[in-house]
Write a structure and sequence with these properties.
Order of helices and strands: HEHEEHEHHEHHEEEEEEEEEEEEEEHEEE
Distance between the termini: 96 Å
Number of strands: 22
Shape: elongated
Radius of gyration: 44 Å
Strand content: over 45%
Structural class: alpha+beta
Strand order of the largest sheet: 11-9-15-21-20
Largest sheet: 5 strands, antiparallel
Helix content: 10-25%
Amino acid sequence: MLLNLLRYLRGYVSFTASGKFPERFLNAAAVNKLNLWNAYPSGNAIRGSMSASDYKRARKVARRAGVKLKITKKQGLPFIAHRHRDRIGLPIGALAGAVLLIVLSQFIWTVDIVGAENVSDCRIMEALKENGVYPGGFKGFVDVRGAQRDVQFKIDELSWVSINNLGCKSTVDVREKAKKSEPPGEPLPCNIKAKCDGVITKINAQNGVSSVTVGSGVSKGDLLVSGVLPTKQDTIRFVRAEAEVFADVNSKLELNIPKKYNYYSLTENKVNRKQFNILWLNFPVNISFVSFPQSVSTVNTQKLVLGGNAMPLGTTTRTSRELLESSVNLTQSQAETAFKKTMLLREAFENPESSVKSRKISVSGQNGTYLCSCEYVLSQNIAESVEFNVTEE
């Protein structure tokens, strides 16, 4: 196989040697060290093959042997190049393509992370990029062992990191640390105290001694249910107090809403700018000189996917849309409506476990703004567990 490849690269010819004594040519060729192969008789002639460089010397040998040589077929790279000598772009393009292929094969095209469950791929990719492992990175600059140690050092949740560069793909195999389960300790005794001011409306104590009654007012930090229990032997026992203590709690929400404010809205005017991406290089596909005083942009990147792997080839489209500035004057009723929406969101997300017993909304205008306020009466569980040390007096 290798011999045939060398013959093809050097070029060879198939010939016919005819005459009265063609076998003399074979003897003369051996004496003159002409390399012949596939020689066989054909009628009154001999057919065979030899390299193109040997064929030039074989003509003189054939004349002395009284044999006439005739080329039947020319094969090999030199003859192909000669036939296409007027198409200089073909060999140049082939050479440029080979060089480009060799150069691009020295870069990382894709990075595949395997084994990450709780640690995000973005964190791992950021640590890898600092060590030269990223799409477009030169493989010759990557210290694999150093990168593995550095990534494992920077991300404490990882117990093992392996980087394998195969071709233009880098596969990063990671293992996460197993979470240690702490043995349950002895629970400390605790009291139930008030986490805010309020008026007690309901007490549901599962463990401990209640220190307040329904209808009594309490301040933040007051003792509601004690974890110190007296016994029949005139001693005390420490327990973890458990209770739900509901109280009416006063709360207030205030919000300043300007009477006039500016806002931006999207118009139909937009400009698309496209780029062709290869590794770390970006080439503009179209050029636009249109610009807007106020605009917002969105970026859409599409990668070429082969065999389930995203290649570092693709396009990026940046769309800029014009923003139009407008202003609006709010009436008091509009400000009150906006305030009610904000108030409902606060009730839903900030106090989801509380129920609203009453609301008192007021809206007043002053100094170019509307002062909106709402006074609440909330029914909520104000119990808070506070552990204590049994050695304390």
